[in-house]
Design brief:
This protein is an alpha+beta fold. About 45% of the residues lie in helices and about 20% in strands. It is built from twelve helices and twelve strands. An eight-stranded mixed β-sheet has the order 5-11-10-9-6-7-8-12, with helices on both faces. It has a two-stranded antiparallel sheet with strand order 1-2. The protein is flat, with a radius of gyration of 31 Å. Pfam families: GerE. It comes from Streptomyces thermogriseus.
């Protein structure tokens, strides 16, 4: 048939049911049925083979991760438990943490993000903290610098006395609680209504290492935050400047530092005023000129440029 007659039905060519006539390319001739059948069967065979390959990969992955959930023995107590458990619901999470509290004998390590700790958040775990203190268990807590301004945290630390040591950082990782370096609890979803209970030795050891490295970088709660060395710029505004220089949006900066977006933008406005910037682009330039786009300089090292107009903005 003429090629133009097949144009309304393009699938005939796409499926190769018709092909050009070698003697006249303006005409099409039918493909032999056995050739079409062989090609279709080959395609089906390839699809089935690919499906088998994917299924095999899934099975291998399931077997691998299922192995993490098998029973593991606690070398210190001789008891057994699952290496990874998903705790669904706040009641189940609280119950599992109460069990870990009862079994804890040496130390508890925690990372508490989110800025100022609310009274109800502190009271939820107070009974566990008091139980641990009564048994002589030592506790070390990591917070963001913003938490220093919460009276509830100060009251909690005063109540716990020497049993708790707290330090702060500009930003910390998501919530983490470690008991005796044998069991860890981490969030499993954004609203923290699910958690993972981890007892796999390699995973727990990794989390302990992360905690210890953050602890070495943190500043004791009883120690004032270091001065930025630039008049009118607070420690928090230095941290915001560094994150702005990395290209982060206001909401991301606020979340990482544990403050509200509104507070973050107020600090950015004061930072702009102090550095004499009238736009975000100019602010980025002034941040770099003032040396606020990286770690603090050694004492006495001057900035690489003139930061602009100064003011006495408070933290």
């Amino acid at each position: 048939m003429p090629r133009r007659d097949a144009e309304p039905v393009p699938c005939l060519l796409e499926l190769a049911l018709l092909h050009p006539d070698p003697d006249d390319m303006d005409f099409l001739v039918p493909t032999a049925p056995q050739e079409v059948m062989t090609r279709l069967l080959r395609g089906m065979y390839d699809e089935i083979s690919e499906s088998h390959r994917r299924v095999g990969s899934v099975v291998a992955a399931v077997e691998r991760y299922a192995g993490l959930g098998r029973w593991t023995k606690d070398s210190s107590t001789g008891t057994e438990g699952t290496a990874i458990r998903v705790l669904d619901g706040l009641a189940r999470i609280q119950s599992a943490m109460d069990e870990a509290t009862q079994a804890c004998t040496t130390e508890v390590l925690t990372v508490q993000p989110g800025g100022i700790r609310r009274e109800h958040e502190l009271s939820e775990g107070l009974h566990r903290a008091l139980t641990l203190r009564s048994r002589g268990v030592r506790m070390r807590d990591l917070y963001t610098h913003v938490a220093r301004h919460g009276q509830g945290l100060l009251n909690y630390l005063e109540l716990m006395g020497d049993a708790v040591e707290a330090r702060t950082l500009d930003e910390v990782i998501d919530r983490l609680i470690l008991f005796d370096r044998t069991v860890a609890f981490v969030p499993a979803n954004a609203d923290r209504t699910m958690a993972l209970e981890l007892r796999h030795p390699a995973l727990v050891e990794y989390l302990v290492t992360v905690f210890e490295r953050l602890w070495q970088l943190a500043i004791p709660l009883t120690t004032p935050l270091p001065d930025t060395g630039i008049k009118g710029i607070s420690h928090r505004e230095r941290a915001i400047a560094a994150l702005l220089a990395e290209g982060h949006q206001d909401a991301v900066i606020a979340e990482r530092l544990g403050i509200s977006v509104r507070t973050c933008r107020a600090h950015i406005a004061r930072l702009s005023e102090t550095l004499g910037a009238t736009s975000r682009t100019q602010l980025g330039v002034r941040i770099a000129q003032a040396g606020l786009d990286g770690p603090p300089r050694a004492q006495g090292t001057p900035p690489s440029g003139t930061p602009g107009r100064k003011s006495s903005a408070a933290s």
